[in-house]
Design a protein that fits this description.
Layout lengths: L4 H4 L1 H9 L10 H32 L2 H26 L1 H18 L4 H45 L21 H26 L2 H21 L6 H19 L1
Helix pairs in contact: 2-7, 3-4, 3-7, 4-7, 6-7, 6-8, 8-9
Keywords: Membrane, Olfaction, Receptor, Sensory transduction, Transducer, Transmembrane, Transmembrane helix
Subcellular location: Membrane
Pfam family, one: 7tm_6
Length: about 250
């Protein structure tokens, strides 16, 4: 049995790299440019939504549209907060990931029973990763699929009108016909949805995977305590010291 972090958590690792938040990515000038471009594209939708809230929804009392627009604002603020946490906590995140990798490497040299404990909790963490991946990516895909169906329905009625991905009102200086606005709508919302999906798929599942790994390490310690007095008396003190040090590392 080979327990490999990058293989078990491959989707989360890929998401972290795509959204430029993985701690192994060097935070240099190139990274700063890429991250800034990504978040600026992401922020354009936020500015448009804020305009709609104050100059359209509240002005005309459109409560239904106000709720939809505010939902996008919540997503933007959540994703922005997550990205700031990632950047601020790079050292801690790297430490936790490296600790898991090291524990997995150690587990590969343990007996089958202990390997099974580590693998079981790692796979549980990966299962949570997959759930959030499906929720994040699937949510965006269903959103776009609904728009495709709406356009097909509009075409089938014989009086075809383009249905935008999200109903925005643009400032007066944006003077474009329906086709151009439709293209702009898709061009701005697609990266917004993709960036949000990547951030949720990578950020939300991190905590559970770390907790489950710690639980697995505690379970290994329980096994060691159960077998503690089976060792020779001369090795008992060293064994107890090893268990205590391991507990300290887990709770650190």
């Amino acid at each position: 049995m080979n327990i490999d972090y990058d293989n078990i958590y491959k989707f989360k690792t890929l998401a972290l790299k795509l959204n430029q938040c993985h701690p192994d990515i060097e935070k240099n000038k190139k990274w700063m440019i890429m991250f800034t471009i990504m978040h600026c594209l992401f922020s354009i939708i936020f500015l448009i939504v804020v305009y709609n809230v104050f100059y359209v929804d509240l002005k005309y009392g459109d409560f239904s549209k106000l709720c939809k627009d505010c939902a996008l604002i919540v997503v933007y603020l959540e994703v922005t907060f997550n990205s700031l946490v990632f950047i601020r906590s790079q050292n801690s995140l790297k430490y936790l990931i490296d600790t898991m990798k090291n524990d997995f490497n150690v587990a590969n040299s343990l007996n089958a029973e202990k390997q099974e404990i580590v693998m079981k909790n790692a796979l549980h963490g990966a299962w949570i990763d997959n759930i959030w991946l499906v929720i994040s990516v699937g949510g965006g895909c269903f959103f776009m699929l609904g728009n495709v169906i709406a356009n097909i329905h509009s075409y089938s009625k014989g009086n075809f009108e383009l249905v935008p991905l999200f109903d925005f009102e643009y400032p007066e200086f944006v003077n474009a016909d329906d086709t151009v606005e439709f293209i702009i709508n898709y061009a701005l919302l697609t990266p917004f949805l993709a960036y949000s999906a990547l951030m949720f798929a990578s950020f939300v599942a991190l905590g559970p995977s770390f907790i489950l790994h710690a639980y697995g390490q505690l379970e290994l310690s329980i096994r060691e305590v159960e077998n503690l007095f089976a060792v020779d008396g001369r090795d008992l003190r060293a064994k107890m010291k090893s268990i205590v040090q391991k507990q300290q590392n887990i709770y650190r």
